[in-house]
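Go through this fold for my students:
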Amino acid sequence: MERGAWKSNFGFVLAAVGSAIGLGNIWRFSYLCHKNGGGTFLVPYLIALFTVGIPIMILEFAIGHKMRGSAPKAMHKIHPEWEWLGWWPVFFVMFGINLYYTVVIAWCGLFALFSLAPLLPAVDALPWSAGKDGTEGFFMHDFLGRPRPADLGPGETAGVFDLGGVQWPILLMTVFVWAVLWVICARRVEKGVELACKIFMPILLLLTAILVFWGLFLDGAVAGIIEYLRPKPALLGEAQVWREAFGQIFFTLSLGFGIMIAYASYLPKKVDLVGSAFITSIVNCAYSIFAGFAVFSVLGYMAHVKGAAVGDVVTGGPGLCFVVYPEAISLLPGFNSLFGFLFFVTLFLAGVTSAISIVEAFAVAAIDKFGWKRIGVVTVTCVIGCAGSIIFTTSAGLLLLDIVDHFLNNYGLVLVGLLECLLVVWYYKIDHLHFHLTDANQGSYSKAMDIWWEWSVKFAAPAVLIIILAWSLIDELSKPYEGYPVKALVIVGMGWVLATFLVSGVFSVYTKHRPAELPDE
C-alpha cells in the first residue's frame, strides 16, 4: 500500500504542534495549575518537560521514522511480542481519552453559539451573564445539568453513578464533532491534517494573545499573576502535584498516544528529528504557560470584585476554563459577542486538530496491521467513538470525565512512556536509534546532545517515572482521588485502563504477521 507523506517538514511540525497544542493547553493546564497551587505546579511541570518530555518525544520520532509505521507496527518490527505496547496506547487514547475529549470540544462549540445570543432581537446579554448564579452556576447547573443543592432531598447526593439525563445540546454537538473528524480523517493525511493545522493554529495563537494582554490591565490582575508565578514550597512535597504535572506533560505533548510515532512515519528519510522534537515540545509548553496568564489575570479580577483570595474565587476542576474565559469575555469593553464567538470557535478547532491526530493514530495502526481501507476504518472508528461519548454527555459526565482523565493520563500514559524507555531502549539497544538519528539529521546534531539524550532515556526518565508512579500509588491508596468512592475509582478509572489493555492484547495476537524487514542503516 502506498504510504502518504507530509508535503513539507514544516507541515509535519505544524501537525505535531497541532496535536500537542489544543484544549490541553487551555482547558486542562489551567485547571491543574489552579488546583495545584499556581506557581507550585510550574516547577514539576518544567522539570518533567526536560527530564521526560523532550527525550521521549525524540524517542517516539526516531521509532516512527525508522520503522516507517504506526505504533503497533513499529513495536512489532522491534520484536513481535511487543506489539501490544503499540496497541495499548492507541486503544485507550482512542476509546478513552478521545471519548470525553470530543465532548469538551462540543462544549466549546456550544459556547461559541451562546456568544452570538446577544445578536438576537429578544436577547440583550450573554447567557452566562444573565443567570443569578454567575458563570460558574451557569456552567455547572444550566449547561451540564448538575443538580443544585436545593434540588436534592435530605441525605440525597448526585454521585458518579447517578447519570441523570442526557444533555441534548451537548449530545448533538458531540455528534457534529465526530462528523467533522470523519470528514477530515477520511481524506489522505496531507490533505486533511496538514491543511487544518495550517489554517487553525495561527488564529488560536492570535486570539489567546489578545486575551492575555487585555487581561493584564484588569483591576486585581496583578494578584492573579502573583498567584500564578509564586511557588508554595510546602506543596512540592505532595505526590498529587508531581503526578499531575508529569501526567500533563504526557497529555499536552501527546506522548504515549502512538500519535508521534505514526506522524513521524510519514516523514522523508532526511529530516531534523531532534530539532522538530525540541520545537514541538517547547512551543507547546510555552503556549500553555502563556495562556495561563489570561486565566489567572481574570481570576485576580474576580477575586478583587468578590473580595476573596484568588485560590478561593471559583471551585476549579475540569470546568474552570468554561467559567473564567466566559467571565473574561463578558468584561471586554466591546464586541463581546464577536470575540466570544471567534475565541470558542478557535478553541473548538484547536480541539479538533488534536482529536484528528488521535483518530489518525488508530486508523494508521489498523491499516498497517490488516490492510483495511482508510474510509472503512475511519467510519467504524468514528461511529464507535461517538456512541462511547454519550455517557459523558449525561448529568454525571463531568464526574466520569474527571475520573477517567485522571487514571488514563496520570497512570496509563506515564506507564507507556516508562515501558517505551525500558523495553525499546534497553532491549532493542539505543545504538540503532543513534545511528538513525544521525543519518536522518545528516550528522547535524552534536555529541553533547547525543550523550544528553542517551542518558535521559536510559537512566533519568525511567528512574523519575518509576518514582512518580510508586509515590502516586502509595498516595492514592491512602487518600482516594478527590474523595470519590473507591468503588467508582476502581470500576470507572482502573476498569477503563484494564479493559483497553486486554483488548490491545487480543488485537496483537489476532493476526500474526511476519515482521517486515527493517530498513537498512
Notes: Residues 514-521 have pLDDT under 50 and may be disordered.
